Task: inverse folding
């Protein structure tokens, strides 16, 4: 029987109880001083709503269409590696949960199961994300497999030419297989030329994930990306980056509607998602929050996490006076000074001021 979670706090607490310290730190941790991680939250907390009143908000449509797929809410699950650490069946349990709820999954090539097995676990839409570990023939073989398995789109993650220096993992003396893989260095030689070749061979929707400057967003458009995912990898690669939502507006402006703009990094609340939609994102990726849902209660835990997220988005849209996602714009936001400390669990106020450890 599914566990009862009244709010997201209870999900985070349940995942914390269920996991070993090293799994918690693998998921929650980030690179070096974890400043990028904290800035993701700080940037979200630096925006407040300007609510509009006396509008008829008795019906609210939270749906969005991404790559021709209708999503119940504009929230997708970001690609994550080693998902078998999070719960039994890992990425396959996630596939079932995401399809049950009605949104889209991005599947990491290092998720822990073969891309075909994850595709077969549900009939929901999925994007395949590849870390490059071989030459163009190796890449093409993966693209062929993803095409055959029915993936809706392809995502290239570009913000990790080198694996981030994550001190929590170093302290646990814990190395992921993908870190010790001798072919890892190949990722460091990937260029725009590689992306152009991949895009041409794939022929369908292509997402470039890990864009953090307007200049690179323009290059991504010039190289034919269908979507640009603004991301700092949840602070797990480069330390001392900017908060993801702070980068979003300049990328939306640079892209000028020539591609979709997605964003991830620090989004754990419905208010966070609505802020990104106001600033022009067409959908928002959740990483750690989805992992905590899986840790709390596997497939059912992730479904419940998405339901709670939906309830928060609904509530926020209603309270600011917006009846559909197209109605959201920057006029709903203003800049403010964040309240209190900001870190990976600071959006869950009842857990206290310190991060859960
Ligand atoms: C445990 C974990 C594993 C991840 N593995 C990958 C991966 O394999 N590929 C990738 O592109 N991003 C990976 N990411 C980054 C996420 O896709 C996403 O950018 C990030 O988690 C967003 O920040 P958030 O966790 O604050 O939501 C991973 C993130 C986490 C938390």
Result:
């Amino acid at each position: 029987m599914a566990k009862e979670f009244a709010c997201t706090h209870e999900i985070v607490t349940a995942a914390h109880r269920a996991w070993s310290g090293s799994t918690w730190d693998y998921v929650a941790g980030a690179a070096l001083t974890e400043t990028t991680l904290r800035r993701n939250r700080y940037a979200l907390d630096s925006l407040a709503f300007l609510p509009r009143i006396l509008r008829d908000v008795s019906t609210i449509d939270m749906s969005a269409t991404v790559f021709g797929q209708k999503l119940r809410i504009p929230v997708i699950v970001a690609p994550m590696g080693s998902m078998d650490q999070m719960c039994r069946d890992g990425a396959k349990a996630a596939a079932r949960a995401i399809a049950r709820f009605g949104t889209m999954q991005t599947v990491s090539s290092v998720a822990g199961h073969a891309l075909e097995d994850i595709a077969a676990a549900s009939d929901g839409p999925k994007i395949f994300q590849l870390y490059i570990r071989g030459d163009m023939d190796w890449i093409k073989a993966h693209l062929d497999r993803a095409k055959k398995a029915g993936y809706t789109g392809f995502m290239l993650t570009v913000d990790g030419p080198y694996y981030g220096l994550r001190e929590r993992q170093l302290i646990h003396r814990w190395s992921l297989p993908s870190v010790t893989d001798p072919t890892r260095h190949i990722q460091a030689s990937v260029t725009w030329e590689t992306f152009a070749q991949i895009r041409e061979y794939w022929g369908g929707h292509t997402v470039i994930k890990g864009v953090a400057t307007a200049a690179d967003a323009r290059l991504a458009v010039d190289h034919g990306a269908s979507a640009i995912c603004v991301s700092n990898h949840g602070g797990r690669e480069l330390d001392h980056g900017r908060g993801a939502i702070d980068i979003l507006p300049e990328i939306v402006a640079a892209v000028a509607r020539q591609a979709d703009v997605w964003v991830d990094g620090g989004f754990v609340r419905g208010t966070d998602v609505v802020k990104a939609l106001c600033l022009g994102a067409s959908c928002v990726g959740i990483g750690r929050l989805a992992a905590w849902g899986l840790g709390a209660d596997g497939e059912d835990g992730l479904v419940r996490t998405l339901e709670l997220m939906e309830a928060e988005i609904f509530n926020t849209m209603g309270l600011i006076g917006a009846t559909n996602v197209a109605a959201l714009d920057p006029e709903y936001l203003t800049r403010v000074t964040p309240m209190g400390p900001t870190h990976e669990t600071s959006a869950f106020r009842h857990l206290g001021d310190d991060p859960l450890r």
Summary: The CA atoms of residues 31 and 166 lie 4 Å apart. The longest strand covers residues 205-211.
